[in-house]
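Name: Delta-1-pyrroline-5-carboxylate synthase
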Amino acid sequence: MGASKVPWLGSRLLRCWSHALYTYSQGKPFGHRGELGQAKRIVVKLGSAVVTRGDECGLALGRLASIVEQVAVLQNQGREMMIVTSGAVAFGKQRLRHEILLSQSVRQALHSGQNTLKDMSVPVLEARACAAAGQSGLMALYEAMFSQYSTCTAQILVTNLDFHDEQKRRNLNSTLQELLRMNIVPIINTNDAVVPPPEPNSDLQGVISIKDNDSLAARLAVEMRADLLIALSDVEGLYDSPPGTDDAKLIDTFYPGDQQSITFGTKSRVGIGGMEAKVKAALWALQGGTSVVIANGTNPKVTGHVITDIVDGKKVGTFFSEVKPAGPTVEQQAEMARNGGRSLAGLLSEQRGEIIYLLADLLTERKDEILAANKKDMDLAISTGCLSQALLKRLSLSPAKLNSLTIGLRQISVASQGSVGRVVRHTRVASGLELEQITMPIGVLLVIFESRPDCLLQVSALAIASGNGLLLKGGKEAVNTNTILHQLTQEALSVHGVRDAVQLVSTCEGVQDLCRLDKMIDLIIPRGSSQLTLLVHKDLLRSPLFDQIVDMLRVEGVKVHAGPRFASYLTFSPSEAKSLCTEYSDLQCCIEVVDGLQGAVEHIHKFGSSHTDVIVTEDKETAEQFLQQVDSACVFWNASSRFADGYRFGLGAEVGISTARIHARGPVGLEGLLTTKWVLRGNGHSVRDFSEQGGMEYLHEIIPIQQPLPEQRSTN
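Structure predicted for Delta-1-pyrroline-5-carboxylate synthase:
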């Protein structure tokens, strides 16, 4: 019936849609992933590729069970969960195929009177019939799975007409609201047994039609004013070009208007939607006030925690946001650091030294700006009480500390000469075939440091000297100080056109998200704090020496935590340590009792950090056994653990202490930030030349390296 024949019908429809659109536009989506943990009402959409098996006949039960578990966990946290699911057609197809094959085998057996069965073929099954046969079984499966977590479910089947009719739409809304109020998880699906084929281009202005479960989930999320829609499919998220192509890159955050720069591929192996349909539905939901994440629900490595990871704000899939960041994303910063680092490595060593020397000069020239920024951080930290006295001391900068930093930077400038591209081994492999091992930068470094802004300068200088790109992640308590110091670093880098080589991450990415950038970052260096665990031989517990140690700790204001064995010796013990691995980052330490050397070594290997361990004893034999058996990076006898430092070892500045067992270990300075490459120069040589028929022989002669620099000679 046309609107021209019934003129009032068109205006009534417009009024209904206008009312619906007004209802939908309430609320504001989250601007950043870190806010997703605040989501109260969540819709999880399970695409056909997620729910069904690879043969498209039957359900992926293990995958579905892990998804149900995550939904139940979030539901039991007090959130309101809804599921929009596919799978009825696949479940029904499996059931009908079984029935058809069974029926054919019975008829064949009756007809032939024999047990030998001929090959049986299954006719093409109509989707609506499969849906009708599969809906009840699919729902029964959901009920059984959710019952394991004491969670009740309810089934709701909808069609596009349920959203077109205002009364039906209100009834649907009311039903869902009541189910959520009763802590029931609604399981929603299109009624594929009766739904008509989707009409192309049938969306009305401001309203999305229900063509598939993507549009259903978006429509439902907005209708129910959900905070978050999680759409699970068989791809990691949204790519800038079809997944699988060489240059395809996963888009972490997608903004309205970005679809013009996207090349969409074909739809998934099952279902009637594709990525283009998902993006359209996601943008419509975003406009309606619901945040959206599209992620992979089929990857066995992440399926068991993909939903909870998204709610926790982790970088999973593609997050749709209306809030564009003021600066580059962390992925873009990592790319800038890599490209800038390559340009930095291409400079002469004298040019890299000039950059560091200029940075030292800028510290002196801009001292007042630096101290003013640091005062802002200190005032805020003191007023909020968010930092301990030990951390406040680290945060604080003074003219004397800046002067020491300036001296240190100039020392690094001198030490950087000849560090990159230095020949460390030269071999004549054969006549006319020579091999060199040459130092080169590692690539891109990620350094994570706590409230210690002087670390930014030291690490930046070492990265520049070694030709490495650098990503810096500092604590928010030092944001003002870090910002000015990074600005000065980039100002110095600009002298030789490599400003982007050092990047300061100012976005809200967590450490775990940064660590996932494994294709862009080559080495991660987390800066820790001073941690003490004090082990005492049991024979010293009642001695004057132990009393002196305890009195000294008390006078210095150190809070003592008792290990479980130490606590058992005392009538009134200090607070018992919750963990023997705890790093207190404050004037606190744990005391535990051991029976002897072997007990101490075993304790260190079990609970220690492999950083620095010290033995205090007058027994040389015991000490030597300790030094040999403990496999930490630094092991001392009767010397302070604070000697574990690159400067005190005579290595110059350091980026930290490495507890790794390959490459660099212990204090990592300039040398530890370099790797090597092998350069072979020949004249048409081939391996066949050295076979019995080739006539050439390997020489492997070591050729003396010409004129090494003084600071290199001691390390070769």
